[in-house]
Amino acid sequence: MTLKIARESMSTKLVTVNLNENMETAHRRMQKRRLRHLPVSDDSGEIVGMLSDRDVQRAMISEVRHEGSGPITSETIAFDPAARVRDYMSWPVLSVSQNADLRQVAERMLAEKVSAFLVKSGDTAVGIVTTDDLLKVLIDLLGNPKTPAH
C-alpha cells in the first residue's frame, strides 16, 4: 500500500470566519455550506483558531416548548447577540504539514481528541483535513463491496 499524505485528502476550499463575527453568522455559514469546522482568521487574515459545530452548540440558547404533557412541539434556537467567535473557538489552531502521513494525522486526532487540523505548506494554510476526509480514505481502502474479492 502506498503512503497517503494530508494534501491528497484535504479539502482545499477554506471557508473561514473572522474571530470578531457573531456566533449566529458563523452558524449560518456552517449550515449553508454543510460544514462542521471553520478556520478562524484575525483581522489580518491569519488563521488563529478553529470553530467546530460543538463550539457552536455550546453557544446556542435553546428553548423547547411543550403543549400539555405531550411531546416537544417546537424548539427555538438563538444566540446571544454579544457572543463572538473568539469566545468559543479553539486556539491556538492545530495544524499538520501538507506532507504529513495520514496515519499519523489520524493517530494525532485520536490522541488529541480533535476532528480537524489546518493543513499548512510552511506558514501558509492550504487546506483542512477532517475526520470526514479520513473516512473517505478508509472507504476507498476497503473497496467496493459489490466487487468480488480475488
Number of strands: 8
How would you classify the helix and strand content by structural class?
Answer: alpha/beta
SSE sequence, one letter per element:
HEHEEHEEHEHEEH
Radius of gyration: 19 Å
Average the pLDDT over all residues and give the rounded result: 92
Stretches where pLDDT is under 50 for at least 5 consecutive residues are none
Main pleated sheet: 3 strands, mixed
Strand percentage lies at 25-35%
Counted by DSSP, the helix tally is 6
What is the overall shape?
Answer: flat
Describe the 3D structure:
The chain has 150 residues and is α/β, with parallel strands linked by helices. It has six helices and eight strands; from the N terminus they run αβαββαββαβαββα. The strands form three sheets. A three-stranded mixed beta sheet has the order 1-2-3. A hairpin with a 5-residue loop joins strand 4 (60-66) and strand 5. The longest helix has 12 residues, at 131-142. The mean pLDDT is 92.
Main traits of this protein?
flat; 8 strands; 29% strand; three-stranded mixed β-sheet; 150 residues
Q: Which SSEs are present, and which pair or pack?
A:
Layout: H1 6-9, E1 17-18, H2 23-33, E2 37-41, E3 47-52, H3 53-59, E4 60-66, E5 72-79, H4 85-88, E6 95-97, H5 102-112, E7 116-121, E8 124-130, H6 131-142
Parallel strand pairs: 1-2, 6-7
Antiparallel strand pairs: 2-3, 4-5, 7-8
